[in-house]
Amino acid sequence: MKIIADTHCHTLASTHAYSTLTEVARAASEKGLLAVGITDHGKTMPGAPGKWYFHNLSAVPDSLFGVRVLRGIEANIIDFDGGLDEAPSILEELEWVIVSMHGPTMPAGRKDDYTRAYLRVAENPRVHVIGHCGTEDFRFDYERVLPVFSEKGKLVEINSHSLSTRRGARENCREIALLCKKYRVPIVVNSDAHFHASVGEVEEALRMLDAIDFPEELVANSSRERFERYLRTHTKVNL
User: Fold this and answer.
1) Are 164 and 197 contacting, i.e. CB atoms less than 8 angstroms apart?
2) pLDDT band (50, 70, 90) for residue 205
3) pLDDT category of residue 51 using cuts at 50, 70 and 90
């Protein structure tokens, strides 16, 4: 299995990443990707981009170096009602919306609290991807929530970066992937690159999926046809 798009990448705008948007797009081109998601952090993350950054992403061309650039965001879930840290009007302007829970932006709670938050997020029509949800700090009721993500058209991200950096993520992501296989929940495999050399580097995640015989047809970014089908159905984007 391989991926044809990496839809979760950060640039210097996030201030804890180290490459420009141009460098990220060039790296995606050099690795033969068809698309790359520029998904810098929403405003409650320390060091997040300034007020006008997401409004002005329209200045970025649709394609750079032959790669479709998805103008996006990694918005933060900030409460147990599934609230996000960017206004609906901003999300509406963007082409690709990932939502994630992060320690600096999400209050401490219990499993039931995170389950409720994710169920509310699933109802948000502007959200496309549930980002790196295998972190032990924000464990939720996988059996209950994952089928709802599928029903509401959300892709569950298997984040290769998380497998080695987030507490409990390796075991939890495997459990999530097995349940996605069981319930036929579509996923997307991403790098969460914070440096251009890491764009498209998802081998660790793909090895985990291969080990559990995960169906390739459930990986939205494993073929142009599948990715375009998702984009056609859930976004305004054309490759």
Assistant:
1) no
2) very high
3) confident
Instruction: Enumerate residues 6+ apart whose C-beta is below 8 A from 87.
Output: none
The model's pTM: 0.97
- Domain residue extents for the chain: 5-234
The residue type of 189 is V
Cα 118 to Cα 205: distance, rounded to the nearest angstrom: 23
- Which of 235, 238, 191 is closest to 91 using CA atoms? 235
Q: What are phi and psi of 40, to 5 degrees?
A: -75, 165
Q: Give the CATH class of 5-234.
A: alpha beta
CA–CA gap between residue 185 and residue 153 (Å, rounded): 9
